[in-house]
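Morning - zinc ion inputs below, output right after.
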Amino acid sequence: MTKCRTHIEKTYLTDRPLGNSQADTNMAKKSAPTRAPKVIPHKDHYARISFLYQASNKFCLQPKYQILSRGYGRNLDLVAKKTVLKLSPALKRTLCKKCNMLLIPGLTMTMKVENESKAESHHNDVLVHTCIECGEKRRFPVGKNRHYDLFSEREGVELPAE
Ligand SMILES: [Zn+2]
């Protein structure tokens, strides 16, 4: 592997004119790990979803406009389903699946850890998010793997820019 890499670097250096070779190698080294896609597919849909999420977030903080916030959340859900976009789990987990309310801990959602096992082992801990608006519960088995990373947070996973 290292042999191959050095070979490529050597050929890259020899093909370039001498004046710009140092600058080119620096650029190549910097741009290699964070390679952004040139064309983002469905960019307009992502922009629309981003706008709807921000609007929902803004109106959710004011109690008299929470119905409007739910409307934006519903719109966001419909756009994502219609255009078959893969939303990031961080965004999906902040929306109630039943009433489309934006879930903010302490304001529109309660969080608690349940353990219904008889042994009361920490491996059976379950994080429960309860929507205050409709009572819908979402359960996450956090005790099974305490070092669990979402696929979007793992290294080497490229997500489309939102
Ligand atoms: Zn709800």
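Note: The beta strands are 109-114, 126-131, 137-140.

O.
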